[in-house]
Write a structure and sequence with these properties.
The complex is a heterodimer of chains A (about 110) and B (about 120). The radius of gyration of chain A is 13 Å and the shape is globular. Chain A is built from no helices and 11 strands. In chain A, strands 2, 4, 5, 6, 9, 10 and 11 form a 7-stranded mixed β-sheet that branches. Chain A has about 110 residues and is mostly beta strands. With about 120 residues, chain B is mainly beta. In chain B, the strands form 3 sheets. In chain B, strands 2, 5, 6, 10, 11 and 12 form a 6-stranded mixed β-sheet that branches. The chains are: A mainly beta (about 110), B mainly beta (about 120). Chains A and B meet through β4, β5, β9 and β10 of A and β11 of B.
Chain lengths: ~110, ~120
């Protein structure tokens, strides 16, 4: 158990819909990272938040957004969903930008 | 640009065989970090090792060993006496030192260990 909690574990929705994925980092970790794992793109970095502020951005679509709340949990919002958004979304946390990364078990999104 | 290449898409071995997973990386940074992660069928990502580019010593942890060669930009992973439980997808990854959580992953190598 990494200590990173992601909900929901599985989500099935339809094209055009909007979903929110939630991540609770390990206690004390200020940094939260979001990754997407899809058959087409593999594992890719989406975005990072550090203590509430956006710190780094990767290949995140404009239809996707994220935020980190004062209690340090983070949410990834995916809107206008397309079939290609079906993927496993991982959240990871670390103490700082240089700390060891701990991954959650992922949220599997299926868009029908 | 940074890039990680795992040329082996799938490898199949029989239990107790040794197996080496290849990883080649590209980066313009003079310092960087390299990682290996394991993704078993259950789907979670399990951290195996992190190596600083300054440390070229090979590392051994039980049946696992890693060979880092800066001259060839390679960071290969060897499993000795493989076991069925080693069956998983293995990912090599690269990061810059200023943000070690921002990983560039390779495409992964699926290892199947048959009894």
């Amino acid at each position: 158990d990494s200590g990173v909690t992601q909900t929901p574990k599985h989500l099935i929705t339809a094209t055009g819909q909007r979903v929110t994925l939630r991540c609770s980092p390990r206690s004390g970790d200020l940094s939260v990272y979001w990754y997407q794992q899809s058959l087409d793109q593999g594992l890719q970095f989406l975005i990072q938040y550090y203590n509430g502020e956006e710190r780094a951005k990767g290949n995140i679509l404009e239809r996707f957004s994220a935020q980190q709340f004062p209690d340090l949990h983070s949410e990834l919002n995916l809107s206008s969903l397309e079939l290609g958004d079906s993927a496993l979304y991982f959240c990871a946390s670390s103490v700082s930008h240089k700390g060891e990364l701990f991954f959650g078990e992922g949220s599997r999104l299926t868009v029908l | 640009a940074q890039k990680v290449t795992q040329a082996q898409t799938e490898i199949s071995v029989v239990e107790k065989e040794d197996v080496t997973l290849d990883c080649v990386y590209e980066t313009r940074d003079t310092t960087y970090y390299l990682f290996w992660y394991k993704q078993p069928p259950s789907g979670e990502l399990v951290f195996l090792i992190r190596r600083n580019s300054f440390d070229e010593q090979n590392e051994i942890s039980g049946r696992y060993s890693w060979n880092f060669q800066k001259s060839t930009s390679s960071f290969n992973f060897t499993i000795t006496a493989s076991q069925v439980v080693d069956s998983a997808v293995y990912f090599c990854a690269l990061s810059e030192p200023s943000n070690t959580g921002k990983l560039i992953f390779g495409q992964g190598t699926t290892l199947q260990v048959k009894p």
